[in-house]
Design brief:
about 290 residues; alpha/beta; binds ligand C2E; binds magnesium ion; EAL domain-containing protein
């Protein structure tokens, strides 16, 4: 991949790009085709409140159902889309799809927040807030129903511009979250000034915190930091019951992970949630607190 650029202006020549240009054009063509021919899928992974066990949100995660290659994970095309600028088209597709899903879930009685991932390029797009606002109006959905996830590094790429985009998104009513917290360039000075509502602890610290005391310490201090700043804290990558229990004891607010559910096709999300709620009430009747 190309080295990171400081802004999103036109790139006239980049040797790394040139060497792979025919491959690049092929993949870019295939991605355009994917959008036009409905090969993209938005999966939903539930986010649960640790104290009650209730489903409080879902993260929207992109998949590409490639006619020959099968289900392509995002890490195989998102970095490329970011590099070429095509991510802006993808992000608008993702947000519009998330808005449609929010309506469907809401009408089924699920009052939850849908989280959408934004990339660096999106934060540098001064028109992003108005594009999102137009989609809210088109689908008659409230900004408060969505949380936008951004990484520390994407903010630090051009802090001034990112800050102004984030302030406008927050002004519209969107919730904002810092994703993969602890892995990127972090600036606590910016964190304090940003209009964020939530921090997501990266799964690399959460996944084995029941075995690794250093990971457990990092998670604990991140929870304290978040609470000290008045932010909600979410742990991603909860893969077993011990980790769920530890996070509960440390008063972490929300959790997401394979232990509860993998990302699901949207058609399966409602039935999963219904089943989960039923199991939860059964456990409460029996007085079980462990999951
Ligand atoms: P992310 O935003 O940090 O998303 C969480 C990732 O962790 C997802 O991977 C999810 O499947 C995975 N995960 C959740 N729980 C567990 C667990 O318990 N164990 C393990 N090992 N993994 C877990 P996924 O779907 O492959 O997405 C990878 C990354 O791709 C995302 O990381 C995000 O950075 C990016 N991405 C996905 N969809 C989009 C999108 O629509 N737009 C943008 N810009 N990026 C996206
Ligand atoms: Mg995310
Ligand atoms: Mg994450
Ligand atoms: Mg992550």
């Amino acid at each position: 991949y190309q080295s990171k650029r400081r802004n999103d202006g036109p790139v006239l020549y980049d040797p790394a790009f040139d060497a792979a240009s025919s491959q690049t054009l092929t993949l870019l063509g295939e991605l355009r085709h994917a959008v036009d021919h409905r090969e993209l899928r938005l999966y939903l992974q539930p986010k649960l409140a640790l104290d009650t066990g209730h489903v409080v949100g879902a993260e929207a995660l992109l998949r590409w159902e490639h006619p020959r290659r099968g289900l392509v994970p995002p890490m195989e095309f998102i970095p490329f889309a970011e590099q070429t600028g095509f991510i802006r088209t993808l992000t608008l597709w993702v947000f519009e799809e998330a808005a449609r899903m929010w309506r469907v879930l809401n009408e089924a009685g699920l009052r939850i927040t849908i989280s959408v991932n934004l990339s660096t390029r999106d934060l540098l797009d001064v028109e992003l807030p108005q594009k999102f606002e137009a989609l809210l109006v088109k689908h008659i959905v409230p900004a408060e129903g969505f949380c936008l996830e951004i990484t520390e590094s994407s903010i630090m790429d051009d802090p001034q511009r990112a800050m102004s985009t984030l302030e406008r998104l927050s002004g519209l009513g969107f919730r904002l979250s810092i994703d993969d917290f602890g892995t990127g360039y972090s600036s606590l000075a910016y964190l304090k000034r940003l209009p964020v509502d939530e921090i997501k602890i990266d799964r690399s610290f959460v996944m084995s915190m029941e075995k690794d005391p250093n990971d457990a310490r990092i998670v604990r201090s991140t929870i304290d930091l978040a609470h000290g700043l008045g932010l909600t804290v979410v742990a991603e990558g909860v893969e077993n019951a011990q980790v769920w229990q530890l996070l509960r004891e440390q008063a972490c607010d929300e959790a997401q992970g394979f232990h509860m559910s993998r990302p699901l096709p949207s058609s399966e999300f409602i039935s999963w949630s219904t089943g989960w709620t039923t199991r939860l009430s059964a456990m409460k009747l029996k007085g079980e607190s462990r999951m």
